[in-house]
Amino acid sequence: MQSTLTFRRYLVLIAIMLTASFGDTFLSIGMRQMGPVSIHHLSSLLLAMRTPWVIAGVALLLGFFAAYLTALSWADLTFVLPATSFGYVLIALLSKFWLHEPVSLARWTGILLITLGVGFVTRGPSYTPHTPMETATPVLAGQAAAQAEGDLP
Amino acid sequence: MKHVADPSVWLMIGTIVVLATAGDVSLAGAMRHIGDFDDIRARSGLRGAIRAVLGNLRFLFGVLCMALSFFALLFALSWADVSLVAPASAALTFVTNAFAAKWILKENVDRRRWFAAVCVCLGVLLISR
């Protein structure tokens, strides 16, 4: 495995955490303003799409998806998921200090465990290099196989 | 609201986890197949990069699975407690993703990554209490 993280790539990981946590928080604020949605009146969810908080939340989650795909193009899934799970911690902190929700001892322990997991995984390599046979298109894979056969004595 | 011991709750959580894992693994496989997004954007511009992503069937399958997983979550939330469904599905997805990445994507899931996945999984369960 090799580490391919540059400053710009760290910024993409930070963007994933920020857009996911702020996007969820904005959606939460918007849906609270809407009030409870009954299963029999799901059409009222469309009304929620006109709320500024919900619109901002959806826009941030679209940004999250773009950043998530970018990260997956140069890092392993088992690196990206734990590395960006610090977003759960951000959501808890936003809930505590912005939405004034209570944060129990169990939650602080959870925050500590997630931070530990993030610290652990980001100190390791981010990418598993694969041979062209595993990742390339069938044509390129065929060329690689032919080249490999040609290299044999 | 259905009780935690109701098998249908866990069947629903299982459905969410399977769909979310299939979505994550398909998206990761698609992006690995397409290559470094920054390089493609530098070579063919943003439009070319978007075309490369949208033209990949594995990517479209991943998006479909993610969408189905999201709707399954919404459906589950309508008859089970959010405090059970959301953390249980998120935490279990971390573990199933690690297994799927190892066996399907052939990622090198070493002890460091297993430890991180377990830490995050337990952390998610605790943070949702």
Care to describe what's here?
The complex is a heterodimer of chains A (153) and B (129). Chain A is 71% helix and 0% strand. Chain A has 153 residues and is mainly α. The radius of gyration of chain A is 21 Å and the shape is globular. Residues 133-153 of chain A have low confidence and may be disordered. Chain B is an all-alpha fold. Chain B has one domain (7-127). Chain B is built from five helices and no strands. The two termini of chain B are 18 Å apart. The model of chain B has no long low-confidence stretch (mean pLDDT 86). The A-B interface holds A 1, 8, 39, 68-70, 72-74, 76-82, 85, 88-89, 92, 104, 106-107, 109-114, 116-118, 120-121, 123-125, 128, 130, 134-135, 137 and B 24-25, 27-28, 31-38, 53, 78, 94, 97-98, 101-102, 105-110, 112-113, 115-120, 122-129.
Series of H and E elements of chain A: HHHHHHHH
Question: Please, what is the oligomeric state?
Answer: heterodimer
Average residue pLDDT of chain B:
86
Largest protein interface?
Answer: A-B, 42 and 41 residues
Question: Which parts of chain B are unreliable, with pLDDT below 50 for 5 consecutive residues or more?
Answer: none
Number of strands of chain B: 0
- Estimate what percentage of residues of chain A fall within beta strands: under 5%
Low-confidence stretches of chain A: 133-153
Helix content estimate of chain A = over 70%
Instruction: Characterize the overall form of chain B.
Output: globular
Beta content of chain B comes to: under 5%
N-C termini distance of chain A: 29 Å
H/E series of chain B = HHHHH
What summary fits the major beta sheet of chain A? none
Number of helices of chain B: 5
Termini distance of chain B? 18 Å
Derived from helix and strand composition plus strand pairing, the structural class of chain A reads mainly alpha
Overall 3D shape of chain A: globular
What is the arithmetic mean of pLDDT of chain A? 76
The percent range for helix content of chain B is over 70%
